[in-house]
Amino acid sequence: MTALKSDAPFRYWPRPRDILGLVDWIRTAYMHREKRKMLVDDRTKSRLTRDGIRIFETSDFAGMHAAGALAARILDEIAPLVVPGATTGQIDAAITAKVDEAGATSATIGYKGYQHASCISVNHVVCHGIPGAPIPKMRTLSNSLEKRRVDDRLKNGDILNVDVTVIVDGWYGDTSRMYIAGDIDRRTKNLIQVTHDALFKGIEAVKPGNTFGAIGHAIQSFVEANRMSVVRDFCGHGLGRVFHAPPNVLHYGKPKTGAILEPGMFFTIEPMVNLGEAETRVLADDWTAVTRDRSLSAQFEHSVGVTEAGCDIFTLSPAGKFHPT
Ligand code: MF3
Ligand code: CO
Ligand code: CO
User: Quick one: which of 89, 101, 225 has its CA closest to 160?
Assistant: First the structure.
């Protein structure tokens, strides 16, 4: 608390030296802002925009393509493992082995205390499902009482998102997609289709001069036209030589709002779409996010880079397996 009592006489007009001080303060703040804009990353020569978004060099795209391709290839290769009776722990172990085999590093192991090479989110789990942990039950008596299956074994009709982030030569590749264990009904198939297509509506909006709001709007309007909802509690993110950087890439919004896209920006788009309401809740393990109404949720994620012409997708599936059906 600052003391209010002072021996200095009360002055109505500021003294000249106070005015000079203020001018100096404004000048310093302005210079600092300009400096920040010009800030050069010693490894990449990249700079930051006024919104704190890094603008990478043309030569940096190659590193992102290499990291993205590995993450996507791993997601291709685990597809045959996703069958009823398999466990999420087995799938994650296979992912860990593939990251190691490639001589790459998992970005998630050790990240904020997380212990696994993937997040595996089953049915009404929105994101950050923990592989190997008993799968949360959709049918629980009340919202406050969380029930889980006896283990992490997949059942016929389960849908799941597997999210993998790898580091290759310091560059991050972050991608996720949906998988289906056994047979699912038409409505569930439709959820997966709409979520997949919503990601690509967002990607189509990625071009210089467009805004981040336009990306969010493209996703939200498409999802809501299909009478589903977009999760607000989690968003995409800038990435590059770090996992999560500005900006927050919202999956809802209005055109002509938010930062303007510039060539050299790298970020993820990763819409989560619910059959029911958008609200989420995090379980007692402090990671697993579920839909509050326990409706089914789906997600797809790509890492992209803005180019002069539009957009490069770093995490395209080498085998063309991104969509599960
Ligand atoms: N891969 C996730 C994303 O898309 C982040 C997972 S962080 C973890 O941003 F710690 F949960 F793995
Ligand atoms: Co991400
Ligand atoms: Co991810």
Answer: 89
Asked if residue 111 has its Cβ within 6 Å of ligand 1, the reply is yes
92 lines ligand 1 (CB under 6 A): no
The runs of H, that is alpha helices, within 134-234 are 186-204, 212-225
From the CA of 19, how far away is ligand 2's center (Å)? 47
Instruction: Give the number of the atom of ligand 1 that is nearest the alpha carbon of residue 268.
Output: 4
The model's confidence at residue 1, banded by pLDDT at 50, 70 and 90, is: very low
Q: Nearest CA to 272 among 117, 129, 99? A: 129
- List the chain domain ranges: 54-313
Using a 6 Å cutoff on CB, does residue 165 contact ligand 1?
A: yes
Topology of the domain comprising 54-313: Creatine Amidinohydrolase (3.90.230)
Q: How far apart are CA 83 and CA 109, in angstroms?
A: 25
Which atom of ligand 1 is the closest one to the Cα of 116?
Answer: 12
Please tell me the pTM assigned to this model: 0.88
Residue located via tokens 């992490």: 152
pLDDT over 50 (residue 267): yes
Alpha carbon of residue 39 to chain centroid: 25
